[in-house]
Amino acid sequence: MTLRPLSLLVSLSLCWPLAASAVEFSQAELAKASALQQRLLTLDTHLDTPANFARPDFNIMQRHDHNALSQVDYPRMVEGALDGGFFAIYTDQGDRTQAAHRAERDHGLQRMMQIHEMLAANPDKFQLALTADDAARIKAAGKRVVYISMENGSPLVADPSLLSFYHAAGLRLMSTVHFANNEFADSATDPKGAEWKGLSPTGKALVNEAVKLGIVIDQSHASDAVFDNLIDMMPVPFILSHSSAKAIFNHARNLDDARLRQLAAKGGVIQANAYGGYLIDETKSPERKQAEEALEKRLGGWENMTMAKGAELASAMAELDKQYPRPKATLDDFFQHFGHMLDVVGPDHVGIGMDWDGGGGVTGMQDASDLPKITAWMQRRGLSEAQIANIWSGNVLRVMRQAQDYAARQAAP
Predict the structure, then answer these.
(1) In sequence order, what are the residues at sequence separation of 6 or more whose Cβ sits closer than 8 angstroms to the Cβ of residue 199?
(2) What are the boundaries of the signal sequence (predicted)?
(3) For 410, which of 109, 179, 254, 404 is 20 to 30 Å away at the CA?
């Protein structure tokens, strides 16, 4: 999950865009790419789809086209040859009062329960994955793979010991922080600036406990100083689940080339992200911002919206695009970042984390059904099948395997 409130989320990703993407693929290229993906294991490391599980009229088994709230459902996963990925427990950062910490604790537990409820309701189509080897087995059984991740560690502030419960319930990837600083770490984007100069002492203890449990650490959204702390302190690699290249667009959320090389030297992986505001400057006019705020208020806010209102929102945003045109990242922009990271660290240290249902999506790639375009682009680039397989899942699963093996060795008598 990248941005709140709703006006920011939708305007940056899910509206029907004005700009055209120059890159195009023939039907033959897309058919070849889709056929390859059907053979390979394809995982996305950042799916905010659980945010929809609380909506009374959302059904992951139904297709939700032309809806501003949804980019991932079972039909579009099948069409896009997406085998699954990391389904995020996202928690918005509160005001850091005790009451906010309790609310965040409860929200995280409720979201974990909602993920398990989805799994229980669809046992023939989705299955929980707990180890690096589970994904291939689940795919072979004809099901979609569900790893569980946590975006923002705030649900753990009230009681960090809950991490062991989350691990027992399936948590296998977690980040410490989101858009603002919290008790664990500095955010890359907090307007107040650094508070801890990286990880706090409590944050370092949390990371150490996650390593002990075999949970992979996700650096996305954390500050560069947090990255430096992780490089220095972690005995195993870590990932960035949805990030872009600072050399292409100088945004605080993006990673510079020197740190990309440090990540690769550590054995880590950066997962290419399709959130437009990190790919290009998508600054909106004041009039556009005001119109979006009014639309958000009229529809009741993102958290309270039904899928029916999501369809209404998509239509309304299309009208705003006509009235207040604005910059919009394209598939070309995504490939520029993706290609740069491949050039810097190679195909063994890059993956895919689109930020679907949390702000991701660019002109030319609107939802999970479009994913074969990424494979077609990699085939055009001349990457081998083995390299493409690593980018789609092999690299992140290698990091997970290293984390779990290390934890097992430390726990052995």
Answers:
(1) 176, 184, 185, 186, 207, 226, 229, 230
(2) 1-22
(3) 109
Whether the Cβ atoms of residue 305 and residue 61 lie closer than 8 Å to each other:
no
Residue 248 contacts residue 337 (beta carbons within 8 Å): yes
Whether 19 shows a pLDDT value over 60: the answer reads no
Which pLDDT band, with edges at 50, 70 and 90, does 300 fall under?
confident
Mean pLDDT of 355-381: 97
Position 5 confidence tier, pLDDT thresholds 50, 70, 90:
very low
pLDDT tens track for 239-264: 999 999 999 999 999 999 999 999 99
Interatomic CA distance for residues 275 and 362, integer angstroms: 7
* CA–CA gap between residue 333 and residue 10 (Å, rounded): 19
Residue 21 has what pLDDT? Answer: 61
Q: How far apart are the first and last CA of the chain?
A: 40
The CATH number assigned to the domain with range 6-411 reads 3.20.20.140
> Is the bond preceding 155 in cis, omega lying within 30 degrees of 0?
no
